[in-house]
Amino acid sequence: MIRGACLLLLVSILSGGAFAEDDKDHNHHEELTENQLGTVHFPVSCAATVQQPFTRGVALLHSFWYEEAEKEFLDIAKTDPHCAMAHWGVAMSIWHQLWNHPDEKVIARGLSESRQAEKLAATATPREKGFIAAIVAFYGNSRQGDSNDSDYEHRATAYSDAMKKVYEANPDDHEAAAFYALSLLASERDNDETFAARKQAASVLEKLFAIEPDHPGVAHYLIHTYDKPQLAELGIPAARRYAMIAPAAPHALHMPSHIFARVGLWQDDIKSNLASVEATRKTAAMGMGGEGHQFHAMSFLVYAYLQSGREDEAAKIIAGLKTMPKMESMYGPDYNAQSRAEAEFPALYDLELRRWSDAAALTPPKDAMPGDLEVIYWARTIGAARAGDLTQAHKDLRQLSDLRQKFRDEKKTGYAEGADQDYREAEAWILHAEGEDDKATGILRALADKNDKLGNEPQSVPEREMLADMLLEAKRPQESLIEYQTDLKVNPNRFNGLAGAARAAEAAGKQKEANEYYAQLVKICEGGDSTRPELSRAKELVAKK
User: Fold this and answer.
1) Which CATH number fits domain 339-485: 4.10.240, 3.30.1340, 1.25.40, 1.10.10?
2) Is the pLDDT of residue 328 over 90?
3) How far apart are CA 262 and CA 257, in angstroms?
4) What pTM did the predictor assign?
5) Per-residue pLDDT tens for 234-249?
């Protein structure tokens, strides 16, 4: 039943909807109500006529519907030219706190808006002045000569420190508390294995969630807070709640899937993202902003389909990318979600299905950005190595090396670290193909140990699962089984993790354990149409019980 409903919705998503052309010229955010966006209380000292629109703008901010929030605050500034907080709202709308680092153009505009808010703040309340001072701290704190990532970290920390003052000065203000908690997530230190910022944010948000279960920001930020395998179970209540709080916001419909994916609830994951993509396309057809965000939801869909034995549905999404019109990048100059999807989805599909020759033959999409090329050459190298074509594998590995150096030269630390990790994964498979298993497994084990502690979300096959695969191919089934079991605690209900654990248990003479893994595999693929041999084997054994 679920599968049938999902397929009908997917057909709707891939074909798009028909809406009146006049919709594109109408500000539909004006029609959004509390029941559609959640309950927010943010009093301001501006004209009484803009109080309701301002509250709506803040609700839009809390669901990261930044494009519509910006329109709302710009409208408020026109209606009440003396409203300082309208300019605060614009400055907040153009900083996408957990998505990307603003470029120089955005920073200049944000600083202009926040300075304008300062100029108009003579009659503002002390509370409002605190919010304005915090956004000025972000846009006005630059460290010339630092890398992009380091400069951003400095700005985000300055903002969070200022928001802490607002929070402490207004202990009963739930908006101050919610925005402070978000600032802790935005300023989180890279590679923090302690999750200190997340735990601090959770201590603020959980109290609010008990008091205001319909506040969109509280549920939303709790999901982001707990978006780690070590914490994900704690995020299930917020995940169940958020989509009900703000059913009109596409991002609110998607966000629960961050938790569902972490705990391996693939059907819940699929339903969330089908609803999100449908809502995104509907609102985009009405002229509302945020159309490019659908690719993130589609990424989760492809991943969940592949884990639950629905390869045909994943293939339909990939095929549908070719017919979609080109959209403007929404994540800054270094990342285009559409071109990344065109590169990443086929790569994920081929590697998950172990179609090594197909992965080795992947070609970069038109207008591919450097980050997209890095994904392609990572998949090509692994595919070629596992298909036995070492000449091509080494050639593609050199392409990866060049891209890694490019990111280093441009001081793009995050991209460079990601490229380095992908380089080492690909290098490990070449070493394995060359018989250097000790070196290869050493590389993958180091990567797996690091990423398991950090709780990083895998783009494709987790490193520990790769390590387990490699050990199984090296005829070390008992060691392989241990690695599969360890990985399934971090990445539960992955198709290849369960299938691999079953094969390793069989090879180690532990048929009872193998049968348990095969049974789990059959269960997560219920309603699917996969013909993968691992699933056929699992169904055969389960049927004999």
Assistant:
1) 1.25.40
2) no
3) 8
4) 0.91
5) 999 999 999 899 998 9
